[in-house]
Design brief:
The chain is mostly helical. The chain contains 4 helices and no strands. The radius of gyration is 17 Å and the shape is elongated.
């Protein structure tokens, strides 16, 4: 394996790690919202999800690691093709938008109820 291939695999592995971390944060934000636990932990997890969303949107709704993968020799620039199922990688934005909306609604409800007490 040459250096560029090794770097490309490392970028894809990093992307997969970051994806799992962000997904864990998203699941925790939803879990906390349903449990009516809008606390500091939920806020930190939400900040991770929000930061990822801002980076994604700020990069024209493309993962910033796509350009890195392309520079390292991946013809598609895909950072998800090896480590995530293709259907999941293709539909991540469509899956995340409703989840983010649900999380916002749940925590809005929780914080509004807390403020009215």
């Amino acid at each position: 394996m040459d250096r560029r291939s090794a770097l490309l695999r490392a970028v894809k592995a990093l992307h997969t790690f970051l994806w799992f971390t962000i997904e864990a944060c998203m699941l925790y934000v939803l879990y906390a919202g349903f449990r009516r636990q809008s606390d500091r932990r939920a806020g930190i997890a939400a900040a991770v999800v929000a930061a990822e969303t801002l980076v994604f949107a700020g990069n024209g709704f493309h993962c910033p690691l796509t350009a890195v993968a392309r520079d390292l020799g991946d013809s598609t620039g895909s950072v998800t093709d090896i480590y995530l199922p293709r259907w999941l990688a293709r539909n991540l934005p469509a899956i995340h938008v409703p989840l983010i909306v649900i999380a916002v609604v749940l925590h809005w409800r929780n914080l509004s109820a807390r403020a009215s007490r």
